[in-house]
Amino acid sequence: xxxxxxxxxxxxxxxxxxxxxxxxxxxxxxxxxxxxxxxxxxxxxxxxxxxxxxxxxxxxxxxxxxxxxxxxxxxxxxxxxxxxxxxxxxxxxxxxxxxxxxxxxxxxxxxxxxxxxxxxxxxxxxxxxxxxxxxxxxxxxxxxxxxxxxxxxxxxxxxxxxxxxxxxxxxxxxxxxxxxxxxxxxxxxxxxxxxxxxxxxxxxxxxxxxxxxxxxxxxxxxxxxxxxxxxxxxxxxxxxxxxxxxxxxxxxxxxxxxxxxxxxxxxxxxxxxxxxxxxxxxxxxxxxxxxxxxxxxxxxxxxxxxxxxxxxxxxxxxxxxxxxxxxxxxxxxxxxxxxxxxxxxxxxxxxxxxxxxxxxxxxxxxxxxxxxxxxxxxxxxxxxxxxxxxxxxxxxxxxxxxxxxxxxxxxxxxxxxxxxxxxxxxxxxxxxxxxxxxxxxxxxxxxxxxxxxxxxxxxxxxxxxxxxxxxxxxxxxxxxxxxxxxxxxxxxxxxxxxxxxxxxxxxxxxxxxxxx
Amino acid sequence: xxxxxxxxxxxxxxxxxxxxxxxxxxxxxxxxxxxxxxxxxxxxxxxxxxxxxxxxxxxxxxxxxxxxxxxxxxxxxxxxxxxxxxxxxxxxxxxxxxxxxxxxxxxxxxxxxxxxxxxxxxxxxxxxxxxxxxxxxxxxxxxxxxxxxxxxxxxxxxxxxxxxxxxxxxxxxxxxxxxxxxxxxxxxxxxxxxxxxxxxxxxxxxxxxxxxxxxxxxxxxxxxxxxxxxxxxxxxxxxxxxxxxxxxxxxxxxxxxxxxxxxxxxxxxxxxxxx
Lengths: 516, 275
Fold this sequence. Notes:
Oligomer: heterodimer
Largest sheet of chain B: none
Number of domains of chain A: 4
């Protein structure tokens, strides 16, 4: 019976689990996103969350530091990535891999999967060697690929694109599971098949191997691990007290050589097993000061001893009160932060304007008045698809930061040349990054027949909460999208996927055959 | 009927193996289903067509999920005693501790010679390792950071990156192989030295403390770092926090923060694997 009770007690979440659940909810506070299938697009998304949490996840309340780092490195030729580097450096020095142990939502997912009762593959000297693989991925996919391709004007976040299972599980699955994003299913191809297989492998692997992704794959953990010894908060080992019994190493499921090294996620499970109390929390004594010990010596008289004990008891009562107050204040702060986040993201943040008319396939294309680039740094002319009846109009929305967009633009250029006079191609880039977009156009399409335009606000609002041409033409936040308007001025097709020349050709021919 | 601890453990093991097999099976079924959907070429896919394809494996998923739920029940109903923790004493630490107590000059000449030989062997292995690490860190970087070593931009980045990754791994393969060999040889050597040290301890006197006989620059630097660990760490922390804050401020002013927002509010579908 007592064992049964102990077992039931062990099912009660630990403090660490509660903090992990708390941070998973805080970093995914945009719960309405799961219901409406849209990501949060408000101004708070310029803050990177500390853990690995894909910013394409409908619930994500902030940006992923790893994704942001890759994008910033890709654009480092134009802008030195101070901001992202600064944020990652700050997180690293404040918390180190404590983030992995307490704040990372993907770490929590893996730990919960590991709870499934199956035989486990324990750490050994070879998993320790394999744990260095994440550094290989960090160097190659997070640094070299984005920088190298960035120099060629191709934005390519290597790790996000080819590996990140958090992106697949939180971002892709999160978006695809909602009916609103059915159009995205058209994009499924070899890359998704690979990433799906990888994500499933990580999920299944997590059941048998503790934190399989964190130990062998995660470049963010590798990065934080480099600063683990210098982090202000974390686990510390007092070497003079250590008797090298190895109980801490034995208890730890990560590939550590010693407590607090670059593999240590500072989960604190070793604190309780240390027989000499050599392991403690760094900064813990400042935040929660421990009880004082009465300094009673043998040469003290009974009276002095009593006074000493009484004084110590008194100060310990004060310390206990202080600890309690600190804990209450921390709990109140944490709860208010979570409640504020939930209220802000789900009720205060401006939702998509329901009164905005969204045009789709079969609708007459509305008057749009698209600002067109004159090739000299200005958008002086304008284009309206309603004035283009008798011709096919292709409207493509793209961005310099989007690899798929960059890849398909030459096909649009080819169509514009091959069907000059019969088809007008308008490539509209995003409202921000005007300078980069203009530079890209001048550098790569100086003599193109494509009309390059810029997205614009069609309703009052700021750059993040306003509604754009993109939204009214069916854009849901994903890029690229292409709208084909037939010669009658009707929207013939809305493609929420990257297109190749043959598909474009088929669409153009079909739209042409629609002419009355 | 009261079950013994052994039979409880057997039940858990049997159940665990069954669950493992089911989980692996379901994982494989998911991957093959996804692959067959892609290979069927019925693009553009619809929710219905995908649901139809996945419904074929639904029964296995239900069985596995049920097993997981039953597993929770079994672990509550038949609790077992937790495993006793055994200290994972590192051989390196054991040998280090023991060697601090042994005075080699007082030990039997042959044993001392053998111990020195083992240490030499390990230092040679260590130097080779250091050289390989340096080479495998520098050479691939020289290769990969030279755009000329990548084929011209063809739009097919996937093939280029796979090629780059393979080249990188090819550079790292010797290091990986050597690391495995190194770990095995080092541990064997440590085991031999451990036995020899025990032998020497039995035959020789125990020295009070072992004075460091090293006076090379590295050892001096290590000693200095050890002695001044606290102020150095504090200095590094302050410097890094200062750097981080300065970087963030510079990033806000140079538009880096706006870039993060711009990227985070627009989904690049390729980046989340839709492609």
